[in-house]
Each structure stands twice: as C-alpha cells, then as structure tokens.
Specification:
This protein is α+β, with helices and mostly antiparallel strands and 289 residues long. It is built from four helices and 18 strands.
Length: 289
C-alpha cells in the first residue's frame, strides 16, 4: 500500500492514489486517524485521496482531516496534490484544474513544481454561504466572547469556512487556548477554521492558525487566502499581501471582487509502503485505565 508524503510550509499531507488501493472505496475514519497519527501511524495533517472522479475538471481530489472528517478545500493540499501529479507523471501540462468539494481550482506549476500558484476562487463574506448562524448578512467585524475575552471577528468562505480575528499580538498559545472553542462555537454550524490576524503593514500580515479537524497548524493556504481577504475588506491591506505563518510565507493576490490567487512552495518528504501491521486491530496497543 503505497504512500507519498509532502509538506507545504510545514503543513504535511499523505497522498494516497486510489489506483493503489483497489479494495478501498475511500479510507475509513479509523484508517485516516491511524495513518495520520504521529505515534502509531505515518503522521500528517491530513490525507489527499486522488486522483479520483471529477465533473468538468482535469482531476478530482478528496481531502480528509486527521479526525476523519472531510474538508471542502485546502490551499496547501492543492499545491501538494499538484506537485504529486507532476512527480508521478500524471500531468503533462503546467496549467490544469482540480475538483474539490469546495469547487474547482486552476493550478499553475512553476520552478519544476517547487513553487505552485492556485487560483483559489472568490471569497464570500455572506453568512448563509460560510455558514454563520443568524440572519443573512455579510459577517464583518462582529463581536464574539470566548472564555470571558471579547474578540471581533469577520467570517469568510473560499469553499470552506473561516473565522478571522484581528488582534494586536498573536502567538501559538493564543491559537491553542481559543482556537478549539471558536472552531466548535454555536455561531458556526459546520465548525470553522480559525485565524488570529496581526497586520504588519499594507503588504504584510501575520497569522496563527487553528484548523478545523486538525488543530494547531504551521501554515494553511485557505487560511492565508481568507485572512488576506478579510484584512483587505477591513481596509487594512492592499491587493498584494504576503501572509507570514510559523511555517513560512504565502503570496496572495486579491482582485476587486475578491478573487484570490495563492502562490507558495511544496517539498516532497518521502514515499514508501504502509505495512499491513499498521491496520491490524489485533496488535494495536492496549491501554489500561
């Protein structure tokens, strides 16, 4: 059972090609959790399952979080999957389309796959689209109270939901403390990705990320896209923004109608074979209470 591992700015994914798993319609929740586990499995921030069926795009992709839930879209995952297609000789051109649950995107390969641009799509701030509870509206600069601390947030969707909270100072500790509570807050019926945003200047922002279904994350392409779009919507940045994260930086371009183009790096980590013992429930560790 062959696997491929890549990272995009420290956000790592396992790529599984369905052609190598004829007995699997898709990985089960338990299989996903086990593969992603950093002690008992290979370890990753998620699984990319493809190429698969598609309607109108060149390739189909499904994205699974480490908790077994399915993500609509991942900017880093899309860049990694694009590099995988190139490395495996599955794509013969530099520009192609990939279908996700969150819509189709266009990928452009640069620098032999080490740098990849993805046209992520148009950002929506509308509550019914994201979704955010309450009446239909643009969710901009609204109040939310978490653990007795008041934040102001804006919500956005670029095929998946995001909650962006501008703050004066950010840190991993801030994301760990408030991120999991905001992720599952009643405001967000499908849960949400969470970004704590610090504006550095008109061309640079810094974010800390708590990712839905994955937890604290070193980098995220969709989080970068949403955060840059929110900062622009609030009038804090211009159309070209570099998003700085613990894992590195992503370049974002924002059109006047909030169409996002993202450019970032990809690194291949490893490829190998998963042993059958990984999935043998009879030899899984047993823990006493």
């Amino acid at each position: 059972m062959k696997f491929f591992k890549y990272h995009a700015l420290g956000n790592d994914y396992i790529v599984l090609n369905p052609a190598h798993f004829p007995a699997w319609k898709e990985p089960s929740v338990d299989q996903i959790k086990l593969i992603c586990d950093r002690n008992f499995g290979i370890g990753s921030d998620g699984i990319l399952w493809g190429p698969g069926p598609t309607e109108g795009s060149d390739y189909g992709l499904r994205i699974f979080n480490p908790d077994g839930s399915e993500a609509e879209k991942s900017g880093n995952g899309l860049r990694i999957f694009s590099r995988f297609l190139l490395d495996e000789g599955l794509v013969a051109k530099d520009i192609f389309t990939i279908q996700t649950l969150g819509g189709s995107v266009t990928t452009t390969i640069k620098e032999e796959g080490h740098l990849i641009t993805v046209a992520m799509g148009k950002v929506s701030f509308t509550s019914n689209t994201i979704p955010v509870s309450g009446p239909e509206r643009e969710v901009i600069d609204e109040k939310i109270v978490v653990l007795n601390r008041t934040f102001y947030f804006s919500a956005a969707s670029i095929g998946n939901p995001h909650c962006v909270l501008p703050v004066e100072d950010i840190s991993p500790a801030l994301a760990h403390r408030y991120g999991p509570i905001i992720e599952s807050h009643l405001n967000f019926p499908n849960r949400t990705n969470v970004q704590f945003l610090k504006v550095l200047d008109r061309s640079n922002i810094q974010i800390e990320i708590w990712e839905r279904g994955a937890g604290y994350t070193l980098a995220s392409g969709s989080s970068s896209s949403a955060s840059a779009a929110v900062a622009h919507k609030l009038g804090l940045v211009d159309n070209s923004v570099t998003v700085h994260m613990p894992g590195g930086a992503i370049a974002i371009e924002i059109t006047d109608d909030y169409f996002i183009t993202m450019t970032g790096t990809v690194n291949k980590v490893a490829e190998g074979l998963m042993h059958k013992d990984l999935f043998d429930v009879n030899i899984q560790p047993k823990f006493s209470a």
